[in-house]
Amino acid sequence: MQIDPDGAATTREWTLELGSQHPAGHGPITFDLALDGDGDDAIIAWAEPRLIPLHRGVEKLFESRDYRQALMLADRHEWHSAFGSELGLALTIESMSGITVPPRAVWIRTAMAELSRAIHHLRWVGETIGELDREANGVELRGAARRSRDGLSECHEAISGGRLHPMLVVPGGVREDTPAGWTDVLRDSASTATANVESLRTWVDSDDQLGGIGVLTRADAVEFGVTGPVARASGASLDLRFDDSSLAYAELVDAGVLRRVTRESGDAQARMEVLVDELAVSLDCVIAAADRLDAAENSGPVNVRLPRAVRVPEGTGYGWTENPSGVNGWHLTSRGGPMPYRLKIRSASFANAQAMCQAVIGDRLATLPTTLMTFLLVGGDLGK
After folding, report:
1. Contact of 331 with 318, CB cutoff 8 Å
2. Comparing C-alpha atoms, which of 49, 36, 120, 140 is closest to residue 78?
3. Which of 88, 159, 273, 381 would give a disulfide with 321, using CB separation of 3.0 to 4.6 Å?
């Protein structure tokens, strides 16, 4: 929609081309806009996301799947945070059922959670740099980020069998133990990726396209329910790894390996800075988790024996995880059967999209693609 000088509103269709390598390019993301002016210098006066469901009613599909099948379906909802999705549902099931996960499985889950976060952040940072900087430096940085990501993805595939959808978590632990030599390769891949972090940070700190655009205030982040790196870039410091710790995060915090990352300015540059700094922290956590997995005290089983048909006691529970893109929540209602009676998802992208529409008001139309790339939106996570 465009606002004419006399105040009348006329409709105009505008298409945002994400590019073949944009991390959200797997699904449609559409915004309705009201513009003051014309061309790239038009000012965004109003914006609203148009949600286009990609799924066949995933929350209803859960109700016709048993709990093991539900875990495999869960990690297809937000494909850049797949491990965190299946982990969050498993933690909910285990909490309601009183299942204790063996220590080795806890550390495998921790290693995989931070490995997935590092892969996620490398994808967003590297591809964003590549889209914004088509010169030699930008091309090289994107290539380095892709190579680092590929090395980490090979570790992801080696233990789970999948580069994107691990389907590794089961109620009570993980499906398989680590393959021989996995921790050594994991440490080497994480160290190689760490060597590229400083170059990515230098580019983000010096780029003049990111500062002052898409400013999301802390008040708006809280009001819209924004979480994850987007919220922490606006000064809303919630991070479930610290504030409602699960897995082995408390030990990593005590060891000084896991560190909270925040910024205050809330603009696109702050969001990219948080991603780069969290990438460095996650790589440190991956190396620390590999060391713990090699320790003798963590050499036990990786799951617990459960009946073929897992049944959750009757009741209602809620579990949440600090996914790479934000908090992922699972509200589970059970009537004691082998399938969920009701399963409701709280996704990060939905809140991020709403908040983005507030953040872009007053910005030039030309800056919208850049802002979009820093809000971590994934099409499959927007609609249920």
Report:
1. yes
2. 120
3. 88
pLDDT in tens, 297-351: 999 999 999 998 999 999 999 999 999 999 999 999 999 999 999 999 998 988 9
Pick from 307, 300, 70: which is nearest to 177 by CA?
Answer: 300
Crossing angle for the helix pair 82-97 and 67-74, nearest 10 degrees?
Answer: 150
| Confidence (pLDDT) at 38 | 87
Q: Which residue has the tokens 């105009």?
A: 12
Tokens, residue 164: 């994107």
Tokens of 321: 């995880």
Tell me the domains of the chain and their CATH numbers.
58-360 (1.10.645.10)
Global confidence as pTM: 0.91
Residues in contact with 80: Cβ distance below 8 Å, sequence separation at least 6, in sequence order: 23, 120, 123, 324, 325, 378
Q: How confident is the model at residue 53 (pLDDT cuts 50, 70, 90)?
A: low
Residue partners of 42: CB distance under 8 A and separation at least 6: 2, 35, 36, 364, 365
Contact in structure between 261 and 232 (CB atoms under 8 Å): yes
3-state secondary structure of 3: strand
Q: How far apart are CA 48 and CA 122, in angstroms?
A: 28
Tens digit of each residue's pLDDT (9 = 90 or more) over 224-244: 999 999 999 999 999 999 999
Going by C-alpha positions, the residue among 317, 308, 381 that lies closest to residue 351 is: 381
pLDDT band at 15 (very low <50, low <70, confident <90, very high): low
pLDDT at 1: 44
How far apart are the C-alpha atoms of 328 and 321, rounded to whole Å?
A: 5
Among candidate residues 310, 318, 320, 303, the one with its CA nearest the CA of residue 67: 310
Mean pLDDT of 82-88: 94
How far is residue 235 CA from its own chain's centroid?
Answer: 18
Instruction: State how far Cα 321 lies from the chain centre.
Output: 10
109 burial (CB, 10 Å; 0-12 / 13-18 / 19+) is buried
Decide: 301 and 280 in contact? Cβ < 8 Å.
no
